[in-house]
Amino acid sequence: MFTGPLAGTTAGPAVRVRPAPGSELIWAAWRAADRLLHAELDRAAPPSAVPAGHPDFVLVRAVPAGVLAADDAELIAATRLGQMSLHAAADLPAISLTGRFTTGGCEPSAR
Description:
There is one protein chain. The chain has 5 helices and no strands. The protein has helices spanning 21-43, 55-62, 70-81, 86-90, 97-100. It has a domain at 55-100. By secondary structure, it is an all-alpha fold. It is 47% helix and 0% strand.
């Protein structure tokens, strides 16, 4: 029954308003799809201990693909995945921060 601020101001009896049948069908479909999605996710295989996109594996695949040089992959693994700072890496032989990193971001590293 309508109980808003204008209740009692109409001449006729109160009218019960139901949602449109189309919206009921849409919500029923949404709830069914949600149940199906959760059932499929519950049935999915558990993730492996080390996913295929793990950063170590990405670096290992990037070297033979020619995306990275082996020494660049080692530097990335040590500084980004390991605990070594860039300044500590710069103290290693044959590595210099000024020769490796450029401001443009896309230039090949200087060796």
